[in-house]
Design goal:
This protein is of the alpha+beta class. The chain has 14 helices and five strands. It has a five-stranded mixed beta sheet with strand order 2-3-1-4-5, with helices on both faces.
Length: 441
Amino acid sequence: MKKIEKIIKHLLFRYHSFSILKKFLLAPLFGLVLVLPFYIFIFLNMLEMKHSVTNVNHELMPLQEISFNNILLLEKIVNEVNSAVSAKEAEWIDDADKNADKIRENLNRYVESSYRKEVKESIIAFDTYYKTLKEVSAKIIQNNQCYKNIENDTKVLVQNYNEIDGLFKSLKLQIKNDIEKNFNALYCDTNYILFNGNFIFSIWFVISTLIIFLVYRDIKHKINKIVEDSKEIARGDVDFEKRLCIVSYDELGQVVKSINMFIDKLHKNHEALSDAKKELDALYITDRLTNVYNRVKIDEIIDTELKKKKRYDHVCSVILIDVDYFKLVNDTYGHLAGDVILKEFATLLKESIRDTDYVGRWGGEEFIIVCPQTDLNGAMSLAENLRSKVEESYFTIVGKKTASFGVATCKEDDTIQSLIDNADKALYRAKNGGRNQVVCL
């Protein structure tokens, strides 16, 4: 009995080491001439199945990845241009060119593929959209976000965006459907081979029939597993922690390896895009010159603190700061020197405030500090401490500088605008009162 078990285990091991073709060749060993027609039939269909798998691995899978990347790159372009428009920095618009070139490069790689028509349409639509995007964004910045034809230009821009976004998503959906069709065809072709072969198996010897049945059950189980997992990938439901099980050393095992390699590559690209998105989010809320928060982020912080005031009666104060006689620095030493002073001034503020405070650049040589859970006395004390440090500090090129401070504390009915206006009025009094002083309202 043990000897028989040992022989069976050895035969099973040899069986799993065979390719699919060799597994089906087991029957001819017993069926001889009777199995030859069926073997030819299987061989021809296996070539077609292998062609389908090759098509998925070499064209559809990479093209689906590119389509996914293009959609994310389009979103990055929109975010970069929006940041440029919000900051009124025309030079930033050119930062989106790299992502635009990546999209064109991705599309051109497959301009001669079976999707050449869709790819060419996407290239034309993207070039039209990107050209319009840069022109409209530049006009908005140059005209301070308001000019005669802004509504028409914006409408055309939105239409162009919807067109290219629709083309990208349509291409992605088409590729997804084709992937599903390929795997379904693989499944159907295999079943076609096996089920139609049963008619021939019926006249074979009992042993041949048993062998074919075992091969059928084994392959079908593996293909079902591959098809189900592949459908999840085609739908975009990819679990990056999950990998398909390597079921054997045959062609299906190679398919599984290819799919796992695709998931690994998709995972790496997903992580890279996630990191890029985090960097874009940071750029969106950060002033590029001084590396402190910009007005967009400061507005969000003040809005949050005002809501806390209304709901929990939390106190909050803001400090508006203006570098004294900064225009004289630009006029005397040039704007590059002025930029150096602004960077050093921002660094001094960041190093001098508390961990709970927020510092941002309000515009030009003006900075703002938001002080949560800080009443007027606390804000005045902090402002006076900052004033002293500025006065005592030595700045590159210009040497000593001073700053004026305006302090305001939020009230029950305050809005962002009213709170800032109060701080600005206090700052105005500080500057008119001789500068280098702290004034509250």
